[in-house]
Amino acid sequence: MDPSRRLANMVPVVSYEEASELVVSKHVRQATDNEVEFMPWKKDILSTLNGQVHTARRRIENPLFARPNLLRFEHEVLDASLERQLRDLFAASERAPVSADLIRLSQFTLLPLTAAFLGLDVEDESAWWESLGEFMRMSSIASALRWKEGDIEQERQECLNAVEEFDRRVFTVAYDRRLALVERIERDATALDELPNDLITTLLLHLPERPRDVILREVLLFFSAMTGTSTMAVATAVHHLDEWFEKHSEDRGKHNDLEFVQRAVFEAIRLHPIPGLMKSAYQEVVLSTGRTIPAGREIFIDLVAVNRDPGIFGADAAEFNPRREFAIGVRPYAFGFGGGAHKCIGRPLATSHDEHSDDAHLDDAVGSVVRIVRRLLELGVRLDPDDPPVLRPGGRQQRYSRFPILFTAPPANGPLSA
After folding, report:
1. How far apart are CA 403 and CA 200, in angstroms?
2. How far apart are CA 336 and CA 367, in angstroms?
3. pLDDT tens digits, 362-388
4. CA pair distance 69, 301, nearest whole angstrom
5. pTM listed for this prediction
6. Which of 106, 304, 366, 371 is the most exposed place for a label (fewest CB within 10 A)?
7. Whether 299 contacts 278, CB under 8 Å
């Protein structure tokens, strides 16, 4: 599965206008057959389904992203997890500035949130969390494998092994317990309030025939997206803001300006999407630009180019600008969350429901990425000038392996409270 060779045979799309038409076209569907054949952990999951089956799956999962759930996840899980990570970090440091690896800090902040959303049975042991962190590392590799250049067979096999290990050590326990609860509810409806509100339970309740393998793969999809993708969004936002503050020092104190922080996060997501969307035209498509795409052709929507289209985002489209103005109807994150029927269902959990938060406040659900970035800014986060971030080699998709940071404004009253 050589991405360069496959992309060379696809119809390229680099304009925002054409991409906007194609993601909603009824004559275009996800081109996932080759991907699923090579990476079987992507079979029959939300991101690879098409048509009515995809719509039905999305309807099952949409209620998980209702505002009351978002509030619960952010305030009861994420806030506590973030403060616990920061408290341990500052307590272990004897001098300022306090150093950390942002990738690890973000991952281990987001893992409890991810576990709660999925319905994993958490073990309160550091070894269990370290194992979950290793599964997260492999999950990130698996999600980006289709963009990796060169021979990837060894990595593919390692991902398959990791799926089996995750199933055995993590998923089975959670699945079996929730299946027993659901079956009990079916015998005694009065016990309905005892059901947890999470992905595994939701799928057991509403997915026809309750296919265990499909539920496992759906869990793996969200596991990667909620922790891995969000971690990279935090990192790119911090990276760009660090550079922005060098030129715009007046903005350094903007951590309490949630509109500014949210726009910064959106701008970072716009600049660093997945490499592209692969589509297939099963009928001829005639675009408003006059271009015709014949039936049967595969299409590559180059999201890096589309999200930096100067006709939409201005002459500085390739630059980071959290004060960028947008035309009506243009999303500030562009296609950073995909688009059309396959737009990322989990976007509200990462950046809230609102795209422009003029009246945003911390008591609301502002999104996990926005909340983390804001807290880091409050603590004076900086890149370590002596130890710059390190990118993973060999892939089209930008991913950091290490991201050293410094906290220059630790809490004034010593270590954070428990």
Report:
1. 33
2. 15
3. 778 899 999 999 999 999 999 999 999
4. 33
5. 0.92
6. 304
7. yes
